[in-house]
Amino acid sequence: MLAFPSESSFSAGALVKRAGAEAVAAFWDMSSYTAAQQAEMRIDPYEDAPKCKLGGCLLGFPGLALLSEEDVWGSFSAQSDTRAAIYFILTGIGLAAIGNLFTVLRRTSLGRRIAANRVVRRFRAGFRWIACSQPRAIGWIRFPTTGTILLISSFWIFILVWSLSIKPYYRSQWNVGSPPLAIRTGLFALGIFPFILAFGAKWNWVSFVTGYSHEKLQVVHQWLSHLFLVLSLLHTFPFVMAGREIRPNTDGKNPHHYSQIYYSGWVAHKVFYWSGIAALIPLAWLCWGSATPLRNRFYEIFKYLHFVSAILFSAFFYIHCHGLLGSWDYLWATAILYLSSVVMRFALLFVRNGRSIPRATVELLPESTVRVLISCPPGHRWKGGQHVFLNFIKARPLESHPITVANAPWLHPNAKAGPRTMMMLLRISPRSGLGPSLLELASTGSSTPVLIDGPYGGLMTSDLGVHEHVVLLAGGSGVSFVSSILQDLCERKARNFEGIATRKVEVHWAVKNAEASAWLDDHFASVVALVPDDFVRIHFYVTKSAITLDEVAEAAIVPAVPSITEEKSEEHESLNSKGSITSGFVPRTRISSLFSPSAVANLLFTHFHLNSSSTPLPYFTIHRGRPQIPLLLSQIFLSCPSTQSIGIAACGPSEFTSAIRNAVAKRQKEILLGVAKGAQEIDLHTEEFDW
């Protein structure tokens, strides 16, 4: 055992150093090392990592003040690096879980009283201001929300500062030991690995605890993966730099005077070196191959390559760790965590589909869209805003497509789910992918077996029904998301279900062509019929330019509509000053090039129902052009009394949802500063077409 006669054997520093010396002596034969090398090996020693070092225990005592800087850094074991990463992430998950509990509490009478408190309201607005605001995209590079950026950046900074602030990075010689920087970053990466898989699973324990669905966690999954790659490179480069040293030929095994790293990897064939390179290659592809343009352009290929690359990386990573420093303990924990998610997912898939395979029929709609109707056997439950992964067993047995459910028939939480019909809208390409198969099914009218994996996502533990005013915004096929939420709110309102405080619902739906209104016209009509006339207002925005009504007459559309005249009446109003067409008769005047001939036909016959009835639809308004999101939401906020809260749900393209987030963030800032007029609580939930 090595001793340090220059220090008192009773000092904390002596105990720390002595513990390190004992560990080093036990691991290596120290006789061939100089005193300087032995002292160097006692600083941040590699072999001390698996244990809770004596110095680490002493850090909890007042004797900490007696430790020198060298003693403190030397007392941190490498496994502390791994645990630091784990504790940081677990802290974030814990805070999210607490926030989820408050969301659940918001539904209760106690929660409503707490939410009405001015201090709580401002604090919540400040948090939501950070959570909602989103930087502008730069080309195809889309940024997450400011809150997500701060969370991820803080973890990156925490890990990188810890990794790079401790010196030395290298040992003086190859045989003195592995570079401390390499060991530290490698173990940080090891600590992150379980969470990368946990955040990437569709059914995962993080969602269960926090209330954030898998698609919301994808941004964390992706950025943790990029950090893992950076740490892996920081783990690799020190070995490359230190390995440039020429290996001595004292044993006669290196007559060609190879470098240390070349000899270790390609002559001695040590497993750490070739397996590390083999793991880096699929890891780089997993990160860089997931770039948004590649993923969107080649999604099906991306899925297969991502899956295969993940398996290859995991296998090589397991070999590379070689059980050193307790690394396999973390990998086995990772396997248990991930496999439990997979088992749970497929168990639910079997339970929901095993007894009776659901069958789907396909109906062709305008704008390259199909409506999929699935007859679900008993046991299938879903809520408004949720999505499923649909597998068409005969058409594409190896593919699962994420599709938002467009309806949500009400079901009491304590009731057993009976047979119900699930409706979905799916935009297709007639010549590629799943499109040709679905078009064939639509033409024949036959049904096909499907597997339903889900449901996932949606509002999770949130409930828009606790808000007096609900605003639903959709862009294009994002209407599936809001239509199911609308049905849920209307059916609960019709049944006067406990906890529903909503007094008014506004739907704002923007599309390129008016033909898209046929997607859900019957659905909207049946849902709105359940509630009082003033409960729902639907605003339909057509963004594509079109023609005048006089040109429609030439297309022989107008003659089919009875009693269209130049006159206005109190019951049937014309184009208003804001460029909207309200429900009822459309006078034969200019419509400022609103609609194409087929669009006008669709609107007149489908929405106004003038071909069979002159009854107006008071809940439906058509607008030309794109909705001005900031102005629209600002007017809604001002029109709502300060005693009421507003719940907003939106789904659409990234530019659409980003504008909504920033408009809401601006309002949250005003509430925080106490200058907001109108509604004093805004709750926002957004979805996008991809993740």
UniProtKB/TrEMBL annotation:
Pfam family, one: Ferric_reduct
Membrane topology term: Multi-pass membrane protein
Entry GO terms, CC: plasma membrane
Subcellular location: Cell membrane
GO biological process, one term: intracellular iron ion homeostasis
E.C. designation(s): 1.16.1.9
Keywords: Cell membrane, Electron transport, Ion transport, Membrane, Oxidoreductase, Transmembrane, Transmembrane helix, Transport
Coiled coil: none
Domain of life: Eukaryota
Domain FAD-binding FR-type: 352-462
Example GO molecular function: ferric-chelate reductase (NADPH) activity
TM region(s), chain numbering: 84-105, 143-162, 182-203, 223-241, 271-289, 301-319, 331-351
InterPro entries in the record: FAD-bd_8, FAD-bd_FR_type, Fe3_Rdtase_TM_dom, Fe_red_NAD-bd_6, Ferric/Cupric_Reductase, FNR_nucleotide-bd, Riboflavin_synthase-like_b-brl
Catalytic activity line of the entry: 2 a Fe(II)-siderophore + NADP(+) + H(+) = 2 a Fe(III)-siderophore + NADPH
Enzyme class: oxidoreductase
SUPFAM superfamilies, A to Z: Ferredoxin reductase-like, C-terminal NADP-linked domain (SSF52343), Riboflavin synthase domain-like (SSF63380)
Similarity-based family: Belongs to the ferric reductase (FRE) family.
Protein name, as recorded: ferric-chelate reductase (NADPH)
Protein's organism: Microbotryum saponariae
